[in-house]
Amino acid sequence: MYGRSNTVGMGYAVDGVFTNGSQVELSQSYSYIIGYQHYWNQQWRTAVLGGQSIMTYGSTAQSMLCGTAPGSSPALYGSIVGGINNCNPNFSQSALSTRTAWNPHPFLEIGLDLIWFQLQTANAGSTVRLLANGARPAGFYRVENQDGYLMALRFQKAILP
Question: pTM for the complete prediction?
């Protein structure tokens, strides 16, 4: 995920990591989401949602991904050239959102969604050199946590009851 200036957030999820002649080191992932919806009356309602996904690797898997375990080499993260100077593949994603919807007619809903999301990046603090990929030019990028915001105004018409 690209951020402002020359920053990038990264993380990847795999079931397990291994090198030639080693056991598969399984990763661990956790996620949760919680939500609540309040009906103000028959036409108005508001919902609030929040959640997080966490991806972790054990110390052996981390050393395999970072290239410090015997027989391993640093993992290539997509179009990254060179090694990671602050290697830690653990990462998480969080989100918080709210939606207010108005039904002026039984077949029409007008809604406003507000969403904040954050990537607690893997390898924070590293500087990487990325190849050009169409979204951003090639060059050096600093790996940092990334925040994003979204606002959406929706008009939804139902054609069936």
Answer: 0.76
